[in-house]
Specification:
The protein is α/β, with parallel strands linked by helices. It has one domain (2-211): 4-Layer Sandwich (Metallo-beta-lactamase, Chain A), CATH 3.60.15. It has six helices and 14 strands. It has a six-stranded mixed beta sheet with strand order 1-2-3-4-5-6. Strands 7-8-9-10-13-14 form a six-stranded mixed beta sheet. Strand 9 and strand 10 (147-151) form a beta hairpin.
Length: 215
């Protein structure tokens, strides 16, 4: 089951519960704000959140992490380059707010590996790097459920900003073409700030042309 919840303190962000149907144990992806709301949604849907996964280290995707860790005592995971963002308010952009974020207890995931739930080991996501919006940008996907959580790399008919610390448009377009647009054409892409889209729909966008089928 996938349950999308919009949370906001400064910027509305899509947070996702990705749950095992049998056990109701769940990943929570990109809890950007409103920890109390996310706790309530989990309770109302009888979900047990085992792990928090971050698609990248910007404040609007991890603003509720510390409160949720204090409540649930669970791991928070991000791509290995997230070290540059986790406890640096300038890089995670929280310095622009009145609540600087410094994450200390983080599990860093290696690229091209699986992360699963302890209570339901077959419920897993595969992580691939998609840098460019940030250096630690990544995507979590599951081929069986035909879904990918793409954060701010891809939006419906668009892609993420590249004018912030660690950003690079060339890197982002290249990595999207390599890691996302090579996934099954009908795979659903769930982003941080837009409606869902698909691999096939985004492959039609002209800005990816120079990067597709490139050695």
């Amino acid at each position: 089951m996938i349950l999308q919840t919009t949370v906001a303190q400064y910027i509305p962000t899509n947070a996702y519960f990705y749950s095992d149907d049998d056990t109701h144990h769940s990943f929570l992806i990109d809890p950007g704000a409103e920890a109390d709301k996310l706790i309530r949604v989990a309770k109302e849907n009888e979900l047990v959140v085992d792990k928090i996964l971050l698609t990248h280290g910007h404040f609007d995707h991890m603003g509720a992490v510390i409160a949720l860790q204090q409540k649930w005592g669970i791991p928070v995971c991000m791509q290995a380059n997230g070290r540059a963002y986790a406890d640096n308010p300038d890089w995670n952009l929280s310095a622009q707010t009145n609540v600087p974020i410094r994450l200390k207890d983080v599990t860093y995931l290696e690229d091209d590996t699986d992360v699963n739930l302890e209570a339901a080991p077959e419920h897993r996501l595969h992580i691939v790097p998609v840098p460019g919006h940030t250096t630690d940008g990544c995507v979590y996907y599951n081929l069986k459920d035909n879904v990918a959580f793409v954060g701010d790399s891809v939006f419906l008919n668009s892609y993420g900003r590249t004018d912030m610390p660690g950003g690079s448009e060339e890197t982002l377009l290249s990595s999207i073409a390599k890691e996302i647009l090579t996934l099954p054409a009908d795979m659903t892409l769930l982003s941080g700030h837009s409606e869902p889209t698909t691999v096939a729909a985004e492959r039609r966008m002209p800005w990816y042309g120079p990067y597709l089928n490139k050695d």
